[in-house]
Design goal:
The chain has about 130 residues and is α+β, with helices and mostly antiparallel strands. The protein has 4 helices and 9 strands, in the order βββαβββββααβα. It comes from Chitinophaga silvatica.
């Protein structure tokens, strides 16, 4: 399994890539494997301010629906529109084309409080 070292991770299996005050967020390879084939991604929160650890959308797989939790507080500035027609990008490229949202982060330093790759690997038992 892949755990890019330039990302930060949450206990809820989201990943964060911080560039300045913009965070790109998606779900981890581990999460998409656990969910199975992704068939729909619903993120109705564009331009909304979401607090850390609050739900910002859902991801639907063949067998289940799972909430998506915001890793850091901020405003959702962009949604990956490619997922509307090809939600399977989350399965095939979770850290690339399968990203979900871009967020203007209230406090970029909050990202430092998330798990690094080693801590995330330990969390999931890798």
């Amino acid at each position: 399994m892949n755990f890019p070292s330039n990302l930060r991770y949450t206990k809820d299996h989201e990943w964060v890539l911080l560039e300045g005050s913009t965070a790109t967020i998606g779900i981890t390879e581990f999460a998409q494997r656990e969910l199975g084939d992704i068939v729909f991604v619903d993120i109705p929160t564009l331009n909304k301010r979401i607090e850390a650890e609050h739900v910002f959308g859902t991801v639907e797989a063949v067998k289940t629906v799972s909430d998506l939790f915001m890793p850091v507080t901020g405003v959702i500035a962009g949604i990956n529109e490619e997922l509307e027609g090809t939600p399977e990008l989350v399965n095939t490229d979770p850290y690339g084309d399968g990203w979900m949202v871009k967020v203007t982060v209230d406090n970029p330093d909050d990202v430092n409080g998330l798990l690094d790759a080693a801590a995330y690997k330990a969390l999931i038992g890798e």
